[in-house]
Amino acid sequence: MNLSSLSTSSHPLSPYGWDEGWEAESTPYTEQGLLPGRVVRVDRGLCDVITPVGTVRADTEFVVPRDPMKVVCTGDWVAVDPEGSDPRYVRTLLPRRTAFVRSTSSKRSEGQILAANVDFAIIAVSLAVELDLGRIERFLALAWESGAQPLVVLTKADLVPDAVGLSYLVQDVETTAPGVQVLAVSSTYGDGLDVLGAVVSGGTSVLLGQSGAGKSTLANALLGEDVMAVQSARDVDGKGRHTTTTRNLLVLPGGGVLIDTPGLRGVGLFDAETGVGQVFSEIEELAASCRFQDCAHEAEPGCAVLAAADSGVLPERRLESYRKLLRENQRIVAKTDARVRAELRKEWKRRGAEGRAAMDVKRGVQGRR
């Protein structure tokens, strides 16, 4: 097959997201006889790669880096050995456009890539249990940081007894997710799936959420067939078991591709300051009016953020969540960035001095009584 003579629209990989940009990136390697392809699944050092001649099984050992952020991941575009090679290896990883990364539980504060080259990050949230707005904000921060466009999908909408109640739930999430589309869907009855299908047809989407959020059921509904195994969630808390155990890339019948992921129990931030700022854009806008440019929005005079919280314009829950995520992100970054560590130590010393001064004043007042 002469790949160079094919247009990008007629290329065998076009259903998987192939375009002129990927063609240009892969040309130096195809000229060496390697095959371009997209990783559809990774499992214990081996990966399935869809190529112009079909799906091949390839070993990732040749490109195993010291940097865990450069390991082969579902959604990656790669160049693999041609037919006849035994064993076959992934020879190179093409530069990623986007990457959804969370921190691991490692004390070294390493990042774990969940999906690569993603256009839409679909955050699935079950309406079978009480909404956890803080967790949604956490997912959104990582989604914005990845470079993908977030989308919140409220699953199991048929379990909400009335339309008014459903509308209020959607509004709560919209307030939590400024600039993000929020859809309520029912995989059982098909409600909202046409809108979601139209959105995801425009590129690569990754499906994220906790176990029991209905991701596999939603994936099957979008695929039009039962490709992903489904297990029912516990009635007591709505939590499910890990139905999906690997990250799989699947072509959607209406266009676009979908990466389904296992349920995520922990969603740690990983160098996501920009993403946090995007999630709390109203706080960032208020901060521009603070008296001090480096205002921490704690107790500084002339703080526009605190003024908005005191007046009720800014919900206290939003401010507390913003502070929590920023602190967590600073701790993660400080583990690998000496400058940030020094700044944090300086800030801790300043706050400690302020606290001691406040206690001295308090003791002085009490001593005069």
Q: Biggest sheet, in brief?
A: 6 strands, mixed
Question: What is the count of β-strands?
Answer: 13
- Find the structural class using helix and strand composition: alpha/beta
Question: Which class of the largest domain in CATH terms?
Answer: Alpha Beta
Please name the CATH architecture of the largest domain: 3-Layer(aba) Sandwich
Number of helices: 10
Strand content: 15-25%
Proportion in helices: 25-40%
Termini gap: 93 Å
CATH domain topology of the largest domain: Rossmann fold
Number of domains: 3
CATH superfamily assignment of the largest domain?
P-loop containing nucleotide triphosphate hydrolases
Order of helices and strands: HEEEEEEEEHEHEHEHEEHHHHH
The residue-averaged pLDDT reads: 83
Largest beta sheet: what is the strand line-up?
A: 10-9-8-11-13-12
Q: Shape from CA axes? A: globular
Summed up, what is this model?
By secondary structure, this protein is of the alpha/beta class. The chain has 3 domains: 3-95, Nucleic acid-binding proteins (OB fold (Dihydrolipoamide Acetyltransferase, E2P), Beta Barrel); 100-260, 3-Layer(aba) Sandwich (Rossmann fold); 273-368, Orthogonal Bundle (Ribonucleotide Reductase Protein R1, domain 1), CATH 1.10.40.50.
What labels would you give this structure?
Ribonucleotide Reductase Protein R1, domain 1, alpha/beta, 369 residues, 10 helices, OB fold (Dihydrolipoamide Acetyltransferase, E2P), globular, 6-stranded mixed β-sheet, Rossmann fold
